[in-house]
Each structure stands twice: as C-alpha cells, then as structure tokens.
Amino acid sequence: MSDSAPAGSTAPAGPLVIDIWCELECPDCRTALDDVRALRARYGDRVDLRLRHFPLEKHKHSFAAAQAAEEAFEQGQGWPYVEAVLGKVEQLARDGEPFLVAAARELGLDAEEFDTALVDGRHMLIVDADQAEGKAIGVTGTPTYVIGDERLDGGKSQDGLRERVEEIADRLLAAGL
After folding, report:
1. pLDDT at 8 over 50
2. Which helix (H) or strand (E) is 36 found in, with range?
3. Cα angle for residues 28, 32, 122 (degrees, 5° grid)
4. Between the CA of residue 153 and those of 30, 63, 91, 139, 147, what are the distances in Å?
5. What 3-state class would DSSP assign to 21?
6. Could you report how far apart the first and last alpha carbons of the chain are, in Å?
7. Model pTM?
8. Is 128 helix (H, G, I), strand (E, B) or coil?
9. CA distance 46 to 14
10. Rounded distance, CA 2 to CA 155, Å?
11. What average pLDDT score do residues 28-39 get?
12. What are the tens digits of pLDDT across the range 114-130?
C-alpha cells in the first residue's frame, strides 16, 4: 500500500480498521467471539478486524497463547485458531502450551513449528509491541475495541458493545473514512 497518492488523484479508501485487543485465556474475549463473527458477517471486506494482543498477568498461559496466535496467522489460519483456543479457555488454563500445540494440530497446522515458535519466542516482539501500544492508548482489560479514535472497553461490560461498534463503523464508513 502506498503512503500517498499522486497529486491530483484520489486514493481508494481501504477497509475500516477495527483493532480488537484480546487475550486468549480471557472468558470475556470468548464471549466477544459472537460479536466478532457478527461484525464480519455485517461488514465483510469493508472492515479489517485486527487481533491485537493484550496478555494479562493473571492468566499464566496468555503470553504463550498470543505467540501461538501469531504463528497461526503466519501459517494462514489466524482467526480459526483464535476461535478454537478462545472456545476452550478452561482447557488452555489447565493444559497450557501442550493444548496450544494440539489446537494447531487439530486445524491441520504445522504443530512442530508451533512448538518451535513457543520455544524460540520468535513472535514475542509482536506480542510485546501490541501490549505496550495497548497500555499507551489506555487499554486496561480485554476485550477492548479501537475504531477510529474511539476506545470501547468490553472488559468492564459487553452490554450493547457490538451496537456501539456498529454505530461508529456505520458513521465512519458513511463518511468515507
């Protein structure tokens, strides 16, 4: 993607970005999966839903899960993997890294590469950068949505959250942003 359009031309607008600050051992993030699916169904390719990592210290496997998710995205199955792991947060809490590798295997991903990635920490810089950015913009819990210049904290309450995200998305899409 070009940083700027030539003078006198109009650059086509890309999809609207919605950052979802998430933690894969978080029961609230599991609940938010229905909202993510609904947003995908409603907006299709007009919206780019981006997973951003915000591992919480209280969940001991959250950093490993974030790294595993990055490996899944690298292998082309990021969102299916995220959904599989979030669907079993209790199993992740109980079994840790062996569960993360098994979840990859179940999706037909290269489980050995997952295991290696968890050992060598190749995705840790991405996870650390996401967490630092989240802290810098005021993320305190998960899930948190950032759309346009608005931050919506679903970690406190998810009541009406999808509707608020849709209102903002509709407004920004209508404005061509």
Report:
1. no
2. helix 27-43
3. 80
4. 15, 21, 25, 8, 11
5. strand
6. 16
7. 0.86
8. helix
9. 8
10. 36
11. 89
12. 999 999 999 999 999 99
